[in-house]
Input
Amino acid sequence: MTSLIPMVRRIIAARVDDAALAEDLVQETLTRVLAAASRVETGMLEPYAIVTARNVIASLWREQDRHRRNQHRVVDLCPSDAPDADLLAREEQEAVSLALSRLSDRERRLLLAHEVTGQDTRSLAGELGSTAGAVAAQLNRSRARLRVEYLLALDRTEPPTERCRPVLLALSGGDRRRQREVDAGRHLLECDVCARLSEPLLARGQNRDGEVCIPIRSDGDIVAARQAARELASRLGFSRTDLTLIATAVSEVARNIVRFAGSGEVVVSLLERPRRGVHVVARDTGPGIADVEQAMVDGYSTYSGLGLGLPGARRLMDEFAVASEIGRGTTVTMTKWRDQR
Amino acid sequence: MTGGPKLVSILRQGAYLIASVHTALDDSQMVRFRDDLVEQIGRHRSRGVIIDVAALDVLDSFGARTLRTIGELARLRGAVTVIVGIQPDVAFAIVSLGMSTGSLVTALDLEEGLALLDHGVGAGRSTLPDRRRPRR
Amino acid sequence: MTEDHGASTRTSLSERADHFRPTGDEDQLLPQLVAHLREHRTKLRQEWAGRIQDSGLLHAMTPQEMADETTSVYDNYVGVLETGSVEALQRYARDLSERIIPRGVETHEVVGIVLLLRDVLARSLFEKYQRDFGLLNRVLDAYEPAANRIANTVAVSFVEERERIIRQQQDSIRELSTPVLPVRERLLILPIIGILDGERARQLTEQLLTGIRTHRAKVVVIDITGVPDIDESVADHLVRTVDASRLMGASVIITGLSPLIAQTLVTIGVDLSKMDTIGDLQGGLEVAERLLGYTVTRDVGMGGP
Output
């Protein structure tokens, strides 16, 4: 649930200027999503939140408009169902049916039988001459596809490149091996459309054990990244001091992204092998660093250049490496070990 | 919920300003805080400023540098700044970063910070003022 | 794991072993000798116990404990020979170590008794099969690798278990070994004695910094007279701790800095003139009390710059 907050906040901030008002709307959206959470399928919570956020904003505009029109009246009228409520509901409905139409007949039949009619996997397997496990796997793939098609339909976009769909599918399915194969991380940094569309898909993945991915675009994300890192690392039983060192290092590398690349992501994961630890990858597709070595020794006192950020972070962690390519971006990886030796 | 809970509060107490940071600030909020505080120091002609950072669980290079900048700007306006409430782990992280903290005047908590201001800190802290402090 | 097998069925098995002729089925050898060892359990175990006593091993145990242990060790040993599974072997070794380490048993004793058992059993096999030299050879070929593997695993497991216990004890000792002493209001003393390694330095930092907050300390005296030498990373850690203490509003005085450690500090680029160092603890305490505004009886000048 908390993983939804940054996303909702971004959606609303993009449409509402007044910060206080935007925060109110964020809260309202979250309340509604929370209330509906039990009714929404796990994977669909994020798309649901997006739609809700848009609804909340729409109703605000409506409210403001009505208020303007009715200012002269003494008594507030009962809010009538505004015409665009229907519109939004229809929009959403259309997106779902469009997404469904893009599945194969077999996929669609299976999904509808399971999700709508409520037929269980075993009886489906019996009908199809397959096994329950295979049906469940097929259902998972279909759900992943449906999510992608739904988001595309809702957004009324076609993916700009051939790589987009495979990447979105890999993310939607939560298939790590496949994500590596299609180099999903890099594609998201390069493709605006996918970066936008994948937000709810990535947010889905945040519930995965032992790993969080925080998109970094603004100052606020720096705070979110370090808080997420601290929370995850605390599961390994690090001392308070170590947790603060980790959070501070994450803060430094995340700021580096905001300052010098504009946007990127921070991925924090827990390691079990070779020994327990926290692993942080900070990635961007910014201009890159011309002289990494210089960046690592320079600017202890100034912040005009790369400043304290990278060398500071290195002093806080046990392992630290920077890979950078001019014009392609920078990747910082760092580790703090829980177990000594 | 308009405005939300306050991120920081700045209170005036005689010739001093007492600023408390209530929650984690992002960089732009930190800059706004710096500007607000420095503006108020000038407006109230404050002689001393206490910044309570006990609520912060991270003070990274930007945060620590901003505190240092506040101290320097305040000094130009004739005020001494004391940072109080730095948590043990946060203190260790700041020095581990390699920050030069020499110009920061710090005290354990608000009470100590006020005592420090009352005794007129100017130079270093490791050597306390020569005159003996009255003990209770 | 310990179960007493009926002797009658075993007898028939070992009877068959007597008349065993090579059939190429060497897999049958271990079950046969296991049956033999079970059959003569009482005699062999007593012989083994006697050998242990003769060698002066396990003297930390009472005769009753010893009888219990040897019985259980014997049965488990034979059980491992029988199943031949690595898990069973490791479980056996771990179990053995956990049970006997708290009784003050040393590594050489454990290895000693297992080797003795191996020899006692080997001798018994030798007596049994000596009439058929070819068969004896094959029996020993099957027995020795298995027996050696048991001895090896037990030794390794014992050492590991002991190290684990030692580490555990070290952890608790470490907490005790960096005491933060509130000697008087707002003054802490940290006498550090012994080797200061990375782990202990980390603990020292945590205890000192939280100690400053709990005791609202204004001055801390860290006495390192008892520290022989420190490496560069620990020196760096120490300096960071001193700086962090200052950020919490406490002054730090270091006493008992040996020339060796001073040299290390200089090597890593510490400006010693910026640290308050006093020759000995007594002098450090006097300076500390002056900083706190207490009256000092003896007027000692502040050492160092």
